[in-house]
Specification:
The complex is a heterodimer. By secondary structure, chain A is α/β, with parallel strands linked by helices. Chain A is 63% helix and 15% strand. Chain A has a five-stranded mixed beta sheet, with helices on both faces. Strand 6 of chain A pairs parallel with strand 5 of chain B, so a sheet runs across the interface. Chain B: It holds the Pfam family ATP-synt_DE_N.
Chain lengths: 294, 136
């Protein structure tokens, strides 16, 4: 049995750990609220962008000179996975879940004979995938040290993806990230970016209704600026959901850690008291048997 | 006077959503006034000021750095890359932006007309921002 001194030291150390996890939980909760607000504020733009793209895309998609960003390169050989994860750990299985989905995806694609490239946004995802797929990683973007997700960052990433597409480095681009369903539930999901999946316009709006719009300047020119913007907004949304999900997950993880530390302290304190009593009893027996011997 | 639903959104937030009488947009090919019952249109915007009229008076003036607008008879939605109320514009920030844009313009590879257009649009939008800041 451990000595009293050792037990005391362990209790203090677990207590200070509990203080840290508790503080981290509070910080995560505050940051979560901010990230959630930011994610909600970005939603109207994304929704309206989708609506505009639906009417524009439907009228252009059929033509042979439709932009690459919309229809892809027409091939299905090289896949680019954009994996969005957090930059830091201590958030439960948050980063691992995305990493696992990406890994399954890479294996599946490679089994089907395709080439896979990975663009990792966030340090943890890059670290996770490097172990197994170091040769597939074609880029790594870290946002460590940034207080909040800025649209400019998403635009940079989108510009990088566009440049890769123009250089013919990939045919299909998929975004892998944690979808923020609620504070306690984040779902790792994959979303295809290029070729753009047009939102279902439904059978109610036949192509005739779409053609009613007038375009100024031409449809192609608007599409040429709208598509990169759409790509950026998709990446931005994924990054925001990732940030919100990260803090949600961290909050849950830290809450659990705090609770576990409390349990541990209780057990150790019980142990400590038992040992203390045992020592007293032993000393008493020694004194009594000593007195009897006299 | 008749009104229509006007919405101004940037990637950061929904800035404006209400019924207005008229909105003047800085369309890529010239200023464009939108009144209720306008023909359906999708236009690209350049950097400039959106002026919103309610009750016969201009009630809101916002600077946008570019974007798109979708106009239907009962609704006008502006998707701005960036939007700031004119009163909150800072001249210093606008001037820094012009300098950055000028630097980018001189440094940019002029090998394709598309690239030139992009940097040119950025410069023009920055200049429009300075003008808007001065006017405020």
């Amino acid at each position: 049995m451990a000595s009293l001194k050792a037990l005391r030291a362990r209790i203090t150390s677990v207590k200070s750990t509990r203080k840290i996890t508790q503080a981290m939980k509070m910080v995560a909760a505050a940051k979560l609220r901010r990230a959630q607000n930011q994610a909600e504020a970005a939603r109207p733009y994304a929704e309206r962008m989708e609506r505009m793209l639906a009417s524009l895309g439907a009228s252009v998609a059929g033509s042979p000179d439709a932009p690459k960003l919309l229809v892809g390169s027409g091939q299905d050989k090289v896949h680019l996975l954009v994996v969005v994860t957090g930059d830091r750990g201590l958030a439960g299985a948050f980063n691992t879940n995305v990493g696992r989905l990406a890994r399954a995806r890479i294996r599946e694609l490679e089994a089907a004979g395709k080439t896979v490239k990975v663009l990792a946004v966030g340090r943890k995802g890059a670290a996770f995938l490097k172990r197994e797929f170091a040769s597939r990683i074609s880029g790594e973007i870290s946002l460590a040290g940034k207080k909040r997700v800025e649209f400019g960052d998403a635009q940079e990433i989108a510009a990088r993806i566009t440049a890769m597409l123009d250089a013919g480095e990939f045919d299909v681009c998929t975004l892998v990230y944690n979808r923020f369903r609620s504070v306690i539930s984040q779902v790792p999901s994959a979303q295809q970016l290029i070729p753009t999946l047009l939102p279902e316009t439904g059978a109610v709006a036949p192509s005739g209704a779409q053609a009613l719009y007038e375009y100024e300047p031409s449809e192609e020119e608007i599409l040429a600026t709208l598509l990169p913007q759409n790509l950026a907004i998709q990446v931005y949304r994924a990054m925001l959901e990732n940030a919100a999900g990260f803090f949600g997950s961290q909050m849950t993880a830290m809450d659990n850690a705090t609770r576990n530390a409390g349990e541990m302290i209780n057990k150790l304190t019980l142990n400590y008291n038992r040992t203390r009593q045992a020592n007293i009893t032993r000393e008493l027996i020694e004194i009594i048997s000593g007195a009897e011997a006299v | 006077m008749a009104t229509f639903q006007f919405e101004l959104v940037s990637p950061q937030k929904l800035l404006l959503s209400r019924a207005v009488e008229m909105a003047v947009l800085p369309a890529a090919e010239g200023e464009m006034g939108v009144l209720p019952g306008h023909a359906p249109m999708i236009v690209a915007l350049r950097g400039g000021i959106i002026a919103v009229t309610e009750g016969g008076q201009v009630t809101e003036r916002l600077f946008v750095a570019g974007g798109f607008a979708e106009v239907t008879p009962g609704r006008c939605t502006v998707l701005a890359d960036e939007a700031t109320p004119v009163a909150q514009l800072s001249r210093a920030a606008a001037e820094t932006r012009v300098r950055d844009a000028e630097a980018a313009y001189t440094a940019a590879a002029m090998d394709t007309p598309e690239k030139r257009d992009v940097t040119m649009a950025r410069l023009l939008s920055a200049r429009a921002m300075v003008q808007a800041a001065e006017a405020a």
